[in-house]
Amino acid sequence: MLYREVGQYKSSYAADMAVFPILQDRIGIAVILVIAYVVFPLIGNDFLLNTILIPFLIFSLAAIGLNLLTGYTGLLSLGTGAFMGVGAYACLKLTTIFPHVNILIWVLVSGLFSSAVGVLFGLPSLRIKGFYLAVATLAAQFFLEWCFIRIPWLYNYSVSGAIEVPLRTFMGVPMTGPTATSLTRYLAVLTIVVVLTWVASNIVHGRIGRMWMSVRDMDLAAELIGIRLFRTKLLAFAVSSFYCGVAGAMMVFLWYGGAEAEVFAIDQSFLILFMVIIGGLGTLIGSFFGSALIYILPIGLRLIPGNFGVPIRPAAAEQLTFVIVGALIIVFLVVEPNGLARLWQIGKQKLRVWPFPY
Amino acid sequence: MRLKLLALGLALVIAAPAAVTAAQAEDGIYIPLMSYRTGPYSGAGIAIFNGMHDYLNMLNARDGGVGGVRLIVEECETGYDTKKGVECYDATKGKHPVVSTPYSTGITLQLIPKASVDKIPVLSMAYGLSASADGNDFPWVFNPPATYWDGASAFIRHIADVEGGFAKLKGKTIGLVHLDAPYGKEPIPLLQALAKDYGFTLKLYPVPGAQMQNQTSLWLDVRRDRPDWIFMQGWGAMNPTALKEAIKVSFPMDHFIGNWWAGGEDDVRPAGPEAKGYSALGFSGVGQNYPAIHDILKYVVDKGNTQTPKEKVGEVLYNRGVMNAVLIVEAIRGAQRLTGKKQVTGEDVRRGLETLNITEARWKELGLPDFAAPIHLSCADHNGHNGIYLARWDGTKWSKASGWIEPIKDKVLPLIDSAANSYVSANAGWPKRSEACDKSS
Amino acid sequence: MHVLYLIFVDPFMQMVHSPDLLMQTLWDGLVGGVLYALIALGFVLIFKASGVFNFAQGIMVVFAALTLVGLHEHGVPAFVALGLTVLVMLVLAFGVERLMLRPLVNQSEIILFMATFGLTYFLIGFGQLVFGGNPKVMIAQDLYLPSGAIEWKGHFGFVSFQKIDIAAVIIASIMVAVLAVFFQRTRIGRALRAVADSHQAALSVGISLEQIWVIVWFAAGVVALTTGIMWGARSEVSFSLQVIALKALPVLILGGFTSIPGAIVGGLIIGIGEKLGEFYWGPLLGGGIENWLAYVIALGFLIFRPQGLFGEKIIERI
To answer: Read out DSSP for A220-263?
Structure first.
């Protein structure tokens, strides 16, 4: 009743091809943005902002990055963690060498370094396909991990061997470092994620996105209709690594505030891949759903015993969390192999005919 | 229908954390333990947290807490994962913890900048950031009784004793088998400095994290280089594998010494009797033969209020947990003495830690005679650089094999200073110490 | 110039000067390679029959070993525990087929891959819940596995052969031989190869896919148990053992996902290659390069043969 497109006329192609052609969708997005920008900062405590929302947004961005590569272009990559690491280390080096430039600019620029590395390791993708390519990207993962540990220049020769995040301010307000409040960091992360998501959505709805999807659906056919495979695949690697790099830089600078190379280990790559697949391959909104489910679900499960007085030891609760998350992943795949984004679509479809289903 | 249920379930689970309720203030001193009883390193974690848990509960059962206030001990499981550690910290922060015990280098690094902001002192007992021994730069972080640099220097002092003086070290080759991670690489600068001073050659044998249980080629290198001594900065599954491989290349066990994270029962048990003669550094006594441990058996273990099997009480890492608990409790006592309050806060406990002074007599009073070297902290020195001893594996159990070995302080302290300075300068805007200094008791 | 000498001359000089070390390296590489091949074999069996890239192979290794040792800790005699563990792996195979593969039939490869991640999580949690998370000692003696070493001394030095390694090589060889005979000569083996060629064609001649899946998952479980025993005896049984499975991935891309001989040859190439590389060239980079070296070796082969050495030729049609 409320959600339908009847009576919304389009008088130009541009309007018809808009990302949100329906008025209700636009209202919905506006409401979400208002909640994110106004309501959460007003009601949010440190736990909500720092432990839930900031990581959720960062993982969503990384998932969008991997989704561009795996979901849209069909190239399976297991090197996400390392590409995030490249972004983080590049950001550290940049802000060390040029401390006066705004840190948020460096966070974005560091993505370019990640892009370059991504293209380099994407080179074999023309010859190698499917799981063979996935395993080849593991070479990038392990080699880069080794570099993060072995090249002291990357972590400024710090004795702890970790990235130590310096204080950087933006118009006098601390953005990074120990004195930056979770609120400023949250707003910075939110803004970057919103802007980059908007960019990504424009990319995938445009010419480039269509090229990627045709490569995904059948690369041989795509080549025959005149798409240059090599360039297209490398472009996908570049854009995807850019997103992952920015996510990595944000993770260290705006969330952790200091990290060891260990956080960019292979587990991180797998985690992001989970999010992409559970959320839905080839959808942007799915990346957010996947990130919410995979990251927030275990936190929720861990909080249940404490808040509802279930007498269970924390260790056993943790083990049960593993069992439940594992089982849920399988259940989700069985119930909806196309991911949460597909559920969302079904839900929208139902809403459209509500309350008179036919 | 299925769709609706699924969506509902999803929404519930995801909304649950948002509805996290503010903790109701209970009467007592709240001590959260960031435990890792799961995950790849759970072997060490289970023992340590059993020790901490049992000692604190013993005090509750025997004395009714500390200074008449009950201790509220709550574990939060991190699985040795930095993400979950930070989550635990944020989740427990609202309940006014008096101290945080991060128990992983990664989590410690996260908490160091937060400590001064949230007014919760970090007690990282002989792990974490070595530079944080400097109390002037890190007023909220404590890492007694020794840093990894103290450990490595005690190792050098020990082998100098065995070889017959520091002069005899000249021309020797010393190998460092280390985990290829910041933790494992930490002793390198100190050993390099000592190598220059005493004229020995340092050889590095890194073990990448993913290769912990696959060290064959590294030990072939050892066989080629034939170092005179090997020091192992190892962790988790790396230790038993290294021992087995060392036996394979017939490296003499009595010239193979591990640091304190390579000296638990689980580390040597797989190699068993063949590892006889291997020794490891330690700073807390082994065995059940202490009055306080007897009390733990009597008040906690025999009553069944614990997960610890009786025979595991008194193992190396269990006792390390006990020692960690003692440090927390002594700091709380100090805080109560300084402030005159019973219900102390994190700020008070920071002062208590800064004036921590556990003498030999005090260890005895605590029912732990000669359990650890005397520990004395001050405003400038948050570590103490205390004595370390050598425990030797006789094939079935660990036993103390040396007196208290002093670290080579004049080599360690300059390193701490420069490391603290570089930390502060790298973290531009690091707050200056504003906390007043209390007189030590 | 000096760098070139270090890269191209010095390692070979070393090999000539101390042949004992070279032989030791080759032997250790061989043993490592055989164990990698064993893990890779588990992957190949499942991939061939059901097209599932089974990420859970690593955790199956840990889970099998943990079950064995855990049962023994509860007082079950060693060989009874071994039998029971085999039974547990059978139950697991049934469970996987019923609850995971059957509902997911006809889904894309990546979904099935993802499902094995779910299985991995499940087994990590379940294994710890039942047997506890602390590391355990493999009951090598109770299983009559030999310990100690045979030292072979020549005038140029000595080479030591660990008895457990020799046992590992022998057992792995027997295992591979048995599997090969099983799949070449028996009815079930032929059915499996038919399934690997084409699911539809196999179904149409009356082969039960479900049955074949249970059999391959069970076979992979037994292979995992063997690997777990061998690797557990070399160090300890703990959850960090699962990263060992990652070492099988370069072996897989080198040998091809669908080829049993490929897994074996690939295992040997990776095992020996990475040991030689680490031992002779590793010190130039400060050591510890073994981990990515295996992937680089595999990647090198892959550039020339994108489907691995023994993989089926990829034929692309529109």
So the answer is: HHHHHTT--HHHHHHHHHHHHHHHHHHHHHHIIIIIISSB-GGG
Residue B345 DSSP class:
-
Mean pLDDT of B313-336: 94
Residue C62 is assigned to a structural domain of this protein: yes
With respect to residue C302, please indicate whether it lies within any of the assigned structural domains: no
What ipTM was reported for this prediction?
Answer: 0.88
The residue of B1, B2, B4, B20 whose CB has the most chain A CBs within 10 angstroms, and thus the best one to mutate to test that interface, is B20
Residue B213 to residue C235, Cβ atoms within 8 A? yes
Q: Are C67 and C131 in contact (CB under 8 A)?
A: yes
d(Cα C249, Cα C158) in Å, to the nearest integer? 33
This prediction has a pTM of: 0.90
At the top level of CATH, which class does the domain B24-146+287-380 belong to?
Answer: alpha beta
- Structure confidence at residue C14 (pLDDT): 84
- Could you list the residue range(s) of the whole structural domain that residue C57 is in? 2-245
Instruction: Tell me the domain boundaries of chain B.
Output: 24-146+287-380, 148-282+390-411
What is the DSSP annotation of B111-128? HHHHHHHHT--EE-TT-S
Say which of B38, B41, B207 has its CB closest to residue C128. B38
Give how many domains chain C has, as a whole number. 1
* CATH class given for the domain over B148-282+390-411: alpha beta
Q: What chain B residue is nearest to C140 in terms of C-alpha separation? A: B270
Q: Label residue B3 by pLDDT band (50, 70, 90).
A: low
**Angle C310-C311-C317 from CA coordinates, rounded to 5°:** 140
Tokens of B185: 């690489």
Q: Which residues pair with B256 in a beta bridge?
A: B230
Q: Do A293 and B131 touch (CB under 8 A)?
A: no
| Separation of alpha carbons B348 and B214, rounded Å | 47
pLDDT digits 0-9 by tens, B10-59: 665 555 555 544 444 457 899 999 999 888 888 889 999 999 999 999 99
B217/C282 touch (CB, cutoff 8 Å), yes or no? yes
Q: Which of B292, B291, B343 is nearest to B65 (CA)?
A: B343
In a domain, C305, yes or no: no
Give the residues of chain A that fall short of pLDDT 70.
Answer: 1, 306-311, 357-358
Instruction: Decide whether B24-146+287-380 matches B148-282+390-411 in CATH topology.
Output: yes
Give the distance from residue C97's alpha carbon to the nearest chain A alpha carbon, in angstroms.
12
| Phi and psi torsions of B73, nearest 5° | -105, 125
- Within-domain flag for C208: yes
The tens digit of pLDDT for each residue in B378-423 reads: 999 999 899 899 999 998 889 999 999 999 999 999 999 998 888 8
